[in-house]
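Researcher: Let's run the pair from yesterday's discussion. Sequence first, then tokens, for each.
Model: Starting with the first of the pair.
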Amino acid sequence: MVFLSVINWARCRGPDEFWRKRRIFRLAAHYIGRRRNCYSIAVRNVHRALVYATKARKLKKEDMKSLWDVRITAACEQHNITLFSLREGLDRANIMLDRKSLSDLASWEPKTFEALAAVAKYKLETDRFIDGQDKCHPTGINLNLKDVMLEAWLNEKKK
């Protein structure tokens, strides 16, 4: 491009404007009507959508945490232990599992979760820990570590 005067050079925004608008139009490609074709309308809608997407990322994390806690709590009630006691017992037994992995074990591998609950309960009993956090006692089956652990499994394998 050859500019004969400084005024024409200043008025030309160059290729940067094309690519800036193209980026907005690509983000608005799935919209309908003028929201897709008119730049001034598209840029408003794209910015609003990006704000919603930013907020949704935080909300998704919170939703997943609450879902994992619900799954773990339900599995704990089956094994007669509270969520607080389970977490405390696993921490004292140096078993470092996060919410997601505990939730996966609770839903997909219930025998493994039962063993973890028994280990946590045994560790709390040996440490003489009293759960003062939860006043109500869960209704479930009492676990003994000896019932859950490997002896029965090993005896089955030998046969």
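Model: Moving on to the second of the pair.
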Amino acid sequence: MDFGLVLLLLGGFLLGGAWSIWRSDDDEKGRTGPQVVFAVILLVAALLASASGLLRLV
């Protein structure tokens, strides 16, 4: 298996995690600060992993 493909899969996994954290808000309080920060960190990591995987495949 090519390393670029592994990075693309990791990016997709991290993107799913970011989406899952973003969706899990409380009905009354909404999203908390740490929840937003963690979702943004996962989103940035997913974008970096996906971009590096694409560049590795090209």
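Researcher: Give me one sentence on the second I can quote.
Model: The chain has one domain: 3-57.
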